[in-house]
Every structure is written in structure tokens, then in C-alpha cells.
Amino acid sequence: MHTEKQKALTNFKKVQSLMGKMIKMTENDEYCIDIMQQNLAAIGILKSAHQILMENHLNHCFTTAMTSKQNKKKEQTGLGKWA
Questions:
Q1: Which residues are CB-neighbours of 20 under 8 A, at least 6 positions away?
Q2: Residue 18, pLDDT above cutoff 70
Q3: Which positions ≥6 away from 55 have C-beta within 8 Å?
Q4: How far is CA 6 from CA 2, 3, 9, 44, 55, in A?
Q5: Domain-by-domain residue ranges, the chain?
């Protein structure tokens, strides 16, 4: 697994942990603002994971497909109809 995907995976695991925490906080009827702060943290981590995956895709998958002569690779990246 590429180090960039590993970073995204780490972020997903952090969000998974935060989700469990938010569920418990909600079940325990904790203060709404505290739950919302955890929610915003999770959203930020997911945005970061999205950015990591997008950059990885553009720098590796996309460029590999563009230089490939295989139409199947281009189709997998969404380039089939454009390339």
C-alpha cells in the first residue's frame, strides 16, 4: 500500500474512533456543542483523507493511465471517453 493511502487509512481509523465517541456522547445526552466539536473534527479529518486520496490519484493512477496504451486503465480512471 502506498504511503499516501496509508495516511488516508489512518485518517479513516481516527474518524471511526471519533464516531464511536460521538455515539456514546449522544447516548449519554452530553452537551450538544461538545458533540458538534467532535463532529467538526471528524469532518476535517475526512476532508484531509479526501485530499490525500485525490492527490494520490492524480499523481499516480491518473498519470499512469494517461501514459498507458491500455484503454481499460483509462476507463477505470474515467478517461475512457476523453482519451
A1: none
A2: yes
A3: 4
A4: 6, 5, 5, 17, 13
A5: 3-75
The domain over range 3-75 is classified in CATH as 3.40.47.10: no
Question: Which of 55, 32, 52 has its CA nearest to residue 44?
Answer: 52
- Mean local confidence (pLDDT), 13-30: 98
Question: Which pLDDT value is given to residue 79?
Answer: 56
pTM: 0.75
Is 66 in contact with 79 (CB distance < 8 Å)? yes
C-alpha cell at 10: 489512518
